[in-house]
Amino acid sequence: MRTVRVAILGQGAVGTRIAHLLLERKDTYHKLYATDIRLVAIFTSSKGLHRAHGISQDEIETPHILQDRPPGANWLENEVGTPDVLFDCGPSDFDRVPEPGSLPYYRLMLAAGKTIIAVSKSALASHGPELATLCKTNDGWIGMSGAAGAALPALDLLRGSVLGCTINKIEGCLNATTNYVLDALMQGSAGAEAGAIQTLADAVKVAQSQGFAERDASRDIEGMDSMAKLVLLANFGVLRILDSAGNQEGLRLDDVHRNGLSNNSVTSEAIAAWNEASMTPRLVSTLEQSRDGNTASGSSGKWTASVSLQTYPSSHPFSSLRGTMKGVLIHTEEMGEIFASACGPEPEATAASALKDFQAWLRDRSRLNNAKRS
């Protein structure tokens, strides 16, 4: 029987749901992989809870159970002891700080050949190539389904289903909030209690009241969330910097030309024109092979990356995305166009995608151990 020691960075809705599901599925992991899952730490930037023999279900929900702790990764390394797996459910603050607060934990874990499962986009979007090199050098493992798309399996498609294809272009409606907001604007109302929606700010307020937008929705509306997800899909799905023998520079956040939603782009005149022409507006992340514009080196040719407002006829797959649905369209030479869409309740969808990575790691680890024994 092997013991896997798990820690969770972040005590928000997703981190809490992951903690509960980990403990609820302990018997399943034991039966499938002969592994004892032990949740040994839950912590934030300034507080933490450590139980060497494992945190219980009741403790997860106990108010104020996290206690003050010394700042930095030394607490995790020295007091808790570097865990086998770290779930990063911290804030996606890459646009507001010089260096993500989670970065020292990634460096600690990957230098020790451990496993990171990312829900936050910050560290991998801003320091992806560095962390990929650290991971490969030390035989670490990184999963990021929760960060790259949650319920939308865009990364799975790129790393699996189209692995034998030449990819020419990726288009994605990667942010649920902007889809909801644009639909609300086009419909002019969102429920009898909301009344008429005339402006972008009106639509954002409705999305917030329905729980589909953060209190500060600027990262979604301005396209920063979509930009970070595009960087993850580009680097880890298309350029495959985790798999390459050498060290690739990859796509940087600064390489992405970003134009989010604004009062200048989403006007009453534009909405009226889109409705009259039966066009659907979407905030779309695009990665395309090109020799011009902002580029990042790939295994073949160059890539341009952008986040921008686009419109589509009713026959286009993106027009079928309603409410908080997300979608991705992958253009390949050999298989043509591949479209996927998804929408799941939160925080369950993101937690489930993170645990998909965790179970994939358990499976790979079990196979490797079996091969060594044989």
TrEMBL record:
This is homoserine dehydrogenase. It comes from Zasmidium cellare. Its EC number is 1.1.1.3. Pfam families: Homoserine_dh. Belongs to the homoserine dehydrogenase family. Keywords: Oxidoreductase. It comes from the Eukaryota. Residues 153-357 form the Homoserine dehydrogenase catalytic domain. The keyword Oxidoreductase applies. PANTHER family: HOMOSERINE DEHYDROGENASE.
